[in-house]
Specification:
By secondary structure, the protein is mainly α. Helix content is 70%, strand content 2%. It has a two-stranded antiparallel sheet. The longest helix has 23 residues.
Length: 242
């Protein structure tokens, strides 16, 4: 990519890549990280990135394109967590696809999402990739809001329950949560307090889940994630205290 030095991008923290080079820098960083993968795995990642880019093309995340979040989540899994499982990487890129764009995946124009849309969207992911990718995305997809239930409480209960049964989904959620939690300071100020109240109670839950023996990560990677989760907690406490 013109004007971007690959060796520098490879060495920079992910949010620094975002600030300096934006989406193109993150796309380059993912491509560089994928160079060590076999061609079949790179093809799966490329297909997932293409679909994620199409689905989230018009989505924004505060100051940036939404796809930046998906790229950082996946790069973190590949580089910092040392996971080269193509299904996990594809699911990381698509982890918000069903939650945000189930109708489009189900083959109809966007609009209010229904349980049938979610079922069909997951079936489409299974068709395009394989059932395991669909199952991983399902495990990190928030359920539709229930009337009379606080949506933040519903979110936290779902995360704890779903990840209990899906060790590989914990890997994706740990990276997703790190991007959301540690990166909360990059969010627009008027959103920080609401998101900190949403995410802060999940820090100890995720620390316990990541630390379990059946979570498929090396011990030093688990320790790194625990450190990141602690940092997220301190930043949320500072936001809430302010």
């Amino acid at each position: 990519m013109a004007g971007i030095e690959p060796d520098l991008v490879r060495a920079m923290p992910l949010h620094a890549v975002t600030e300096v080079y934006g989406e193109q820098g993150l796309r380059l960083r993912l491509a560089l990280e994928c160079e060590r993968l076999p061609a079949t795995k790179r093809s799966t990642v490329d297909d997932a990135l293409r679909l994620a880019g199409e689905l989230h093309a018009n989505d924004r995340r505060t100051r940036e394109p939404y796809v930046n979040h998906l790229l950082r989540t996946t790069i973190r899994v590949l580089h910092y967590y040392r996971v080269d499982d193509a299904d996990v990487l594809a699911a990381a890129l698509l982890h918000d696809a069903v939650e945000d764009h189930a109708p489009e995946l189900a083959g109809r124009p966007g609009g209010d999402c229904t349980p049938d849309d979610i079922e069909q969207a997951l079936a489409e992911l299974a068709r395009r990739f394989n059932p395991r990718v669909a199952q991983l995305v399902a495990a990190v997809t928030n359920p539709l809001p229930e009337p009379g239930v606080n949506r933040h409480e519903q979110y936290r209960e779902h995360v704890a329950h779903s990840l209990n049964a899906h060790p590989w989904a914990r890997v994706i959620k740990a990276s997703d949560f790190t991007d959301n939690g540690v990166g909360l300071i990059y969010t627009l100020p008027h959103r920080q307090n609401t998101l900190a109240r949403k995410y802060r109670p999940l820090v100890p839950v995720l620390k316990e889940l990541v630390g379990r023996a059946d979570t498929p990560l090396a011990d030093d990677v688990k320790a790194h994630i625990q450190t990141q989760l602690d940092l997220a907690g301190r930043r949320m406490d500072a936001i809430l205290g302010a």
